[in-house]
Structure formats: structure tokens, C-alpha cells
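We modelled each protein-ligand pair independently. The example shown here corresponds to the pyridoxal-5'-phosphate entry; the chain sequence is given first, followed by the ligand as SMILES.
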Amino acid sequence: MAVPYNTGMMNSELQLLQPYPFERLRALLDGITPADLNPISLSVGEPKHPAPQFVLDALTDSLRLVEKYPTTRGSDELRSSIAAWLCQRFALNNPDALAANHILPVNGTREGLFAIAQCVLDRGNSTSTVLMPNPFYQIYEGAALLAGCTPRFYTADENPDANLDAISDQEFDDAQMIYICTPGNPSGAVNSLSSLKKLIEKSHQHDFVIVSDECYSEIYRKQTGAPCGLLQAASAMGLDQYDRCLVFHSLSKRSNLPGLRSGFVAGDATLIKNFANYRTYHGCSMPGPIQSASAAAWSDEQHVTQNRNAYDEKYAAVLDILSTKLTISTPPAGFYLWPELAVDDQTFTQQLLQEQNVRAVPGSFLARTDPKDQINPGQNRLRLALVAPLEDCIQAANRIIQCL
Ligand SMILES: Cc1ncc(COP(=O)(O)O)c(C=O)c1O
């Protein structure tokens, strides 16, 4: 006879985890019969442009590396290619020192952003909050909760510099760590270099770690130019050891390789050393063939430029259509649109599927209600991921207009 699990035997912090947005979306759309049109999904932020062939070739050419255990630190080849990329992209110095002491591979930023909280946060500490944006990537919240800390949200809208300025010294004092997301998901907004410098000063004054999720940094509009990054700000301040700073980057969006599960963390040498130790026990080293393919991907920019151009084309076409009925502008980076609706976001999401067979994410699923004013900042917003092919994005935009 099966004996039911006694949930009291499990980690009670698991009970604190919120349902994931896509689980809520499935429940919201369950039972709806979509219109008899070709389905178009703008809901999941999964890139759909083709993966670069030379990366796939590097992967198949190195398959025999599965005959060896990979190291947690990653191969010299991988760390050197990442260091070279960081130096040319964010004006950093000394690629050799970077590769030696400041970089670790992670199996996608999701895994790394979660694991870093388990490594950095001290559950016995009296200051046990983790600052994070709202709306946000829900992994930050789960990571903080499972590390025994309390998430504390700060507003994240189209003015990310002002959002960081609005965090009080008391909130910084209470925090062990802050997650920032620049370019932001879903806003696509980007922090300025001076705002990142100011945050670094705060981290030294109030003793907390900055975790900067920069996984959309390469998906920027050609017209607005490349966003700056946290390590760039540290380096510009003369902090060449990147104290208290960590950045996370990914090949998922930059190189259309979401299934490769490849990214890296870079920054503060002490944090990186401790994270390497944590990861040795966790057993999450990156498989050898993935390391080789990743080294190839970080060493090429041509495919990234092509990728950016494809998103620019989609934004131009879709904005032309949507702006006839929505107040909407092209974000500086990312691949989302985040329009405000005049109607309830969840009802509209249901209606969009039922009448037009288009899937989107209701904004309220991506944010938490602010206890101060009881407002969910995602309320009456819609997140549209422009990942589908251009023709599908155009068709989806026309159908959204119909629905409005
Ligand atoms: C803000 C943000 N951070 C991190 C990730 C994780 O990306 P990956 O694990 O593929 O690098 C995502 C994925 O959608 C994201 O939107």
C-alpha cells in the first residue's frame, strides 16, 4: 500500500514557492477553445531564430569530450573566450586575470541566478532580505526563499535609474543582496553607467552583493546602441577586482541557443572562488561539448548582429500596427513589448486566445502586489515576446488590434 508523504519531512521552504507564471497561464487558458486560425505564441521568451551552424558543428566535433568529467571552473579555452568577449564588449582590462580569477561557466543564467543565492546568502544573518525588481523574473524570488531569506521588491518600470534611486538606505542596510535586471524583462529598459556606479557605491556603504542579470544585453536596438554593464561601471570606477559585483550572461538569447543551457557568471574574485566551491559540491559543471560549442559562440559577433537586425525588423513592423490602437514605444533592448491595456489583462489574454488564437502573458502574472499600495504593477499590462517569425509577429499584431 502506498504511504502518503509526510510533507513535514520535506524542506518547509518549498511551501513558500509561488506557482510559476506559465503554470498560472495554463490554468487561465485551460478549457478555452482557440479560434480556428493558425496558432501564434508570443508568450514564452524562447528565441526562435535558427541556432548558428558553426556552433552546432563545434558541438558535434567535440562530442567525445563526454568521455571525461568536466571541471567546475570550465576549460581554459572557454574562460579565455568569455574574457575576450567581456573586454571588447564592456571595455574591461586584463583578459588573462579575468579568465584566471573572475569567470565561471553556468548551465544557463536561470541555474546560475538561483544557485548564487544559495552560495552568497547567510540565513543566520539578522539582515536577511534580498532586493529584487517588480515585475521580475520569478527565479530571483524562489532563490531567495529557498536560501531562507525574504524577498523585498522595488518598482521596475521604464525608468530603471529612478527605480534604483527610490530604494532607501534602510532597505539597502537590510539587504544581503540585490538582483537587478538590465536590460529589464519585461520593460527592456536599461540602467545608465552613472546609475550602476551609484549602486556600486551603495553596495560598499551598506555591504551587500549586486547580482546583475544581463542576459538580454546583446538584444538591443541598433538605433539606441549597446547597453552598458555592471562590470563596466566597476572598471570605470577603478574597481578592477569588481568587489561585490557579479554579472550573469547567457547564450540563450544572444546566440539563439536556449537549449544549450550555457551562460557564465563574472565578477568579484572572492565570490567567484566561493561559488566554484559551492558548485563543486552541487555537481553542476558544464559538459565538455557544451563548453567547446560555447567558446565558439562567444568568439563570434557576426551571428549576433544578424540576430539583432531580425528583432529590429520585427519591432518596426509590429509597432506600426500596434501603435494605431495602443500607446506603445520600442524599448531600447530585449525582445518584449509591454503595452498597457484599457481592460483587465487576464480577461484580455483569454479573449485573445479564444478569438484570435494568439498566446500572450498577462502582466499581473509577472509581478507581485505591492504591500504599500496594494497595486500589482503588471496589472492591465500584456507581455508579448517577439520571438515568432516576422510574418507571424505581424499577423499576431493585426489580430491583437482586431481583439482590441
Ligand atoms: C530576465 C531573465 N533572466 C534569466 C533568464 C534565463 O535564461 P537562460 O537560463 O536561458 O540563460 C531569462 C529567460 O527567459 C530571463 O528572462
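Residues 302-322 form the longest helix (21 residues).
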